[in-house]
Amino acid sequence: MRVLGLETSCDETGVALYDSQQGLLADQLFSQIDLHRVYGGVVPELASRDHVRRLLPLIRQVLTDAHCTTDQIDGIAYTAGPGLVGALLVGASCAQALALGWGIPALGVHHMEGHLLAPMLEANPPQFPFVALLVSGGHTQLIEVQGIGQYKLLGESLDDAAGEAFDKTAKLLGLNYPGGPEIAHWATSVQNSRFQFPRPMTDRPGLDFSFSGLKTAALNAWQQHQLSEPDRDVLRAEIAHSFQQAVVETLTIKCQRALQQTRLKRLVIAGGVSANQVLRQALEHMLVQQGGEVFYARSQFCTDNGAMIAYAGCQRLIAGQHDGPSIEVRARWPMEQLSPI
């Protein structure tokens, strides 16, 4: 089966073509980072309008890159949620219109299921079952995965997601948007830091997260030292270093607990924050000590992209699932509501 995937959940327009026999045939992505950077974050209305401008040209480019004609496409998958409603509606309406015109089925895909399955696009994909750490700007969740659609939520953030905390901390330090890569860059410019930030909720049992207090600790350090600090760049770097280490150690501790609780040896990390090299190294070190394995997608498929939607949609379309002609999207959508295949 050959499936066209459309991703428009936030500020990136992704289009890809996936073939169940040949794998990923083509992939295109347009990021709106430059559009939103001046505002320090995503402006929903601007994101929606830019998706309208970019989507059809990207679809044409993907079909050209794949040397594929429209009559060779068997289905269309699109992100139906969670995400920004206006942005989601652009992708959903485009997908449903094309599906109707081409006479093929369309299917709305869960955005986080797309992220969770993105490592399946790699040469050495993980085998079920495994524990998944979904860590992005909007979500931080630990999930036990027995198969596609067979998800058990083990823990999640009670306030800010890890990626959101990265962005907010970068903003208070005067760094550019998006904050995750900025924090990572500044953190690597120093070897040590005078600051010791808390590892939230690691001193109690359970697998939930909380990052708002960590963000506040970084803010307090910045406000208390910036007036007396002769070199503010050193201060930024040290706070970024300590903040990143606190997030990474917190995520690592919780992943270790989840693996012990489920008695599983495989860990999948997915979502934008999974591209962080310090996090990858920490989790790899932890898994090696426990005789386990960690899996993640290549960096270009950690952030939002069409390839993960095309893959996830293909698996469900092959199983016979598809949507009716109505256009429905969800700003919030618990993964436990997904049907297994």
Summary of the model, kept short:
By secondary structure, the protein is α/β, with parallel strands linked by helices.
Label the overall shape: globular
Structural class of the secondary structure composition? Answer: alpha/beta
Strand neighbour order, sheet with most strands = 3-2-1-4-5
Question: Mind telling me the CATH superfamily name of the largest domain?
Answer: ATPase, nucleotide binding domain
- Number of domains as seen in the coordinates: 2
Order of helices and strands: EEEHHEHEHEEEHHHHEHEH
Taking pLDDT < 50 over at least 5 consecutive residues as the criterion, the unreliable ranges are none
Number of strands: 10
Could you estimate the helical fraction of the residues in percent? Answer: 40-55%
Largest sheet: 5 strands, mixed
> What top-tier CATH class of the largest domain fits best?
Alpha Beta
Query: What's the CATH architecture name of the largest domain?
Result: 2-Layer Sandwich
Kindly estimate the percentage of residues that lie in beta strands according to DSSP: 15-25%
**N-end to C-end Cα span:** 16 Å
InterPro entries: ATPase_NBD, Gcp-like_dom, KAE1/TsaD, TsaD
EC number: 2.3.1.234
Main location: cytoplasm
Subcellular location: Cytoplasm
